[in-house]
Amino acid sequence: MTDSHSTSPSLENLLHETRAFPPSPEFAAQANAQPSMYDEAAADRVEFWARQARELVSWKTPFTQTLDWSGAPVAKWFADGTLNAAYNAVDRHVEAGLGDRVAIHFEGEPGDTRTVTYADLQREVSRAANALATLGVESGDRVVIYLPMLVESVVAMLACARLGAAHSVVFGGFSADALRSRIADAGAKLVITADGGYRRGAPSALKPAVDAALAAKEGEPATTVEHVLVVRRTEQDVEWTQGRDVWWHEAVEAADTFHEPAWVDAEHPLFILYTSGTTGKPKGILHTTGGYLTQTAFTHKNVFDLQAESDVYWCTADIGWVTGHSYIVYGPLLNGATQVIYEGTPDTPHRGRWWEIVQKYGVSIFYTAPTAIRACMKWGEEIPAEFDLSSLRVLGSVGEPINPEAWMWYRRVIGSDRTPIVDTWWQTETGAIMISPLPGVTATKPGSAQVPLPGIAATVVDDEANPVPDGGGGYLVLSEPWPSMLRGIWGDLQRFKDTYWSRFPGIYFAGDGAKKDEDGDIWLLGRVDDVMNVSGHRLSTTEIESALVSNELVAEAAVVGAADDVSGQAVVAFVILRGEHADEAGTDEGSARIEKTLRDHVAQEIGPIAKPKRILVVAELPKTRSGKIMRRLLRDVAENREVGDATTLADSSVMNLIQAGLAKPA
Ligand code: WT7
Fold first, then answer.
1. Ligand 1 centre and the CA of 482: distance in Å?
2. Of 486, 641, 665, nearest to 588 (Cα)?
3. Rounded distance, CA 162 to CA 139, Å?
4. Mapping DSSP to helix (H, G, I), strand (E, B) and coil, where does residue 606 land?
5. Does 278 or 486 have the greater pLDDT score?
6. Beta partners for residue 576, in sequence order
7. If you write DSSP's letter for every residue of 16-61 in order, what string do you get?
8. Which residue's CA is the closest to the ligand 1 atom numbered 18?
9. Whose CA is nearest to atom 2 of ligand 1?
10. ipTM of this model?
11. Cis before 612 (ω within 30)
12. 659 Cβ partners below 8 Å, 6+ apart?
């Protein structure tokens, strides 16, 4: 383990949290989830998933094999079945007579709207698939998608799936450099982007980042990208590369509305999604088709109690993250849900925008992140009180531990003290929800994700991989394969094995600390590795450190995630400047300039989401005798705590030096 083992500051509170909210009899009576599911899955876990795969997914060729774990840790689920993800998400609903059902209520940030039925979606996805095929995309290819939250984003993902090409969505908040390395790693043939999107009341350009990402660079191989397909959204001016760039509306509108889906094997790649790891290079998490669709559909139906005929579902995530993949695109559409997609930020043009949208569309299931709930708490409960939220009946939380205070506020203010809250634990790697209460079944506890879902084997172990007793704490692990598990890291099988399967041989190490309470319920306590969680976004300390040292001002850098009231953690960087710049930091003006330069530099290297909140210039960094930076001590400084045990430092005076330097009046 690294020395950066973190215990959440709210751990003490969590351990004293004893409130529980049993489901109402009315909710339990109508719920999709039933207590018997746990027994069925316990009796035969593999058969349980086979049943879900048959019930929730349509197969072109039915599978006869369920799980093949002989190639562990790369699983095969339903391997001899064939299917198509886009057909499952769209066409089969139209064939079942549900073509007129609204699939998407789109709400643009400026207030423009668009209603898309399943029949509309079938036409759009088919045309887009034909357009992509015309541009040379074939089954097995990779397509990078760099788009804002638009209907076209969903259509683009499904068009790839329809062709059997893997999509790799890159969040619009990542920089040109980050985009470039992901395009190269995936070996993408096509990039789908937009001129821009609306963000905080203004158009925000995207196309220039794609142009920069594809520009020739000395010493680097030529890009694999043949075409760039550009959605017109903001009508900003764009640079145009003749022969390479193609307008989406021209290509898609010219294409035929019929397209025969590519029937692929269950283990055919569906997507690659890059996520931060403990080293500098992002990992391309690979997901395949049959198992992923089975578990996203199952969890979406049961964890959110989706009643497809009557519910209006809204997940506030961006499609650039796995939550958007599993709980905007695949889970909801497989289940024939009606959902809201919103382009913008929660406070544009006013801080009640989300609640206005809930009222407008009668949203009944709402899924968001603790950081957003904490921001709303800060803005004040009089804001949601102005809107009619009585349509809400299930609330979900994801992305980071939710503190009991935020959970209680969510339930009382947004859920009128009535709605179940599902705190869902999962990861990009797990593909779908793994640990969560089941609404109508579980008595919920504020701050706990509680129970592994039926068919999921999750537990908490100590350093020697022994399961801890109730009341004990340790590391969260997954001890049996599950259908939507990652099938590897794109192009790096060894890293896949090292990262997840070597800490405890044969079982999956999630990287999270956890504890079991006296009832055996699981409480997540945050990451135990060098991964930070800022506003529910995963960032790597080492990745930001290498971005900082790539600037000529910086000799050395150490980054920590410090506790933050709203974002959960905030990025705090400690930097040692190169000799010739060290003096500049001595003045207010100089240090402000350095701070701005470095924050902008990180934004350029990784993206605005990775910008350090604070940059502290120091003369030394605390290191062990073997040269490892003791981030734990820096976190103490960043969180204004008394510095912990520093006896393993090579030079024990370093912490005093750092603190004295920071305390100096500027
Ligand atoms: C990490 C995964 C899952 C989609 C969004 C994030 C943390 C996620 C919870 C939760 C406590 C949570 C974990 C996990 N996390 N959900 N309900 N309670 N922690 O996906 O970017 O892959 O990050 O997010 O630390 O390891 P991700």
1. 17
2. 665
3. 9
4. coil
5. 486
6. 556
7. T----BPPPHHHHHH-S--THHHHHHHH-HHHHHHHHHHHHS--SB
8. 401
9. 427
10. 0.99
11. no
12. 637, 643
Letter string b/e over residues 429-453, b meaning 16 or more CB atoms within 10 A of that residue's CB: bbbbbbbbbbbbbbebbbbbbbbbb
Which two tokens mark 459? 């537990």
Look up the pTM and report it.
0.94
User: Which mutation among 275, 524, 532 tests ligand 1's pocket best, with the greatest number of atoms within 8 A of CB?
Assistant: 524
Of the candidates 430, 164, 76, the residue with the CA atom closest to the CA atom of residue 275: 430
Averaged pLDDT of the chain: 94
The pLDDT, as a whole number, for residue 12 is 54
Ligand 1, atom 11, lies closest to the CA of 401
Which parts are annotated binding residues for ATP?
399-401, 423-428, 512, 527, 538
Residues that constitute the known binding site for CoA: 199-202, 323, 535
Angle formed at CA 235 by CA 234 and CA 240, multiple of 5 degrees: 120
pLDDT at residue 11 is higher than 70:
no
User: How far is C-alpha 36 from the chain's CA centre?
Assistant: 31
Residue 320 CB contacts under 8 Å (≥ 6 apart), including other chains:
169, 170, 171, 172, 173, 174
Q: For a substitution probing ligand 1, which of 500, 533, 541 has the most ligand atoms within 8 Å of its CB?
A: 533
CA 602, 603, 606, 612 dihedral sign is: positive
- Cα first-last separation, the chain: 37
Ligand 1 environment, Cβ below 6 A: 275, 322-323, 398-401, 423-428, 449, 510-512, 524, 527, 533, 536, 538
78: Cβ contacts below 8 Å, ≥ 6 apart: 50, 53, 63, 65, 66, 266, 290, 291, 294, 483
Atom of ligand 1 nearest to the CA of 433: 3
CA distance 44 to 431: 22
Q: Where are the alpha helices (DSSP H) in 553-653?
A: 579-582, 588-605, 631-638
Contact between 489 and 285 under an 8 Å Cβ cutoff? The reply is yes
Q: How far is the CA of 642 from the centre of ligand 1 (A)?
A: 29
Are 576 and 539 in contact by the 8 Å Cβ rule? The answer is no
Looking at the DSSP assignment, which residues form a beta bridge with residue 340? Answer: 105, 314
397 CA: nearest ligand 1 atom: 17
**Alpha-carbon distance 307 to 336, whole Å?**
9
Instruction: Compute, in angstroms, the gap from residue 398 CA to the centroid of ligand 1.
Output: 7
Q: Residues forming the annotated binding site?
A: 199-202, 323, 399-401, 423-428, 512, 527, 535, 538, 549, 554
pLDDT number for residue 189: 98
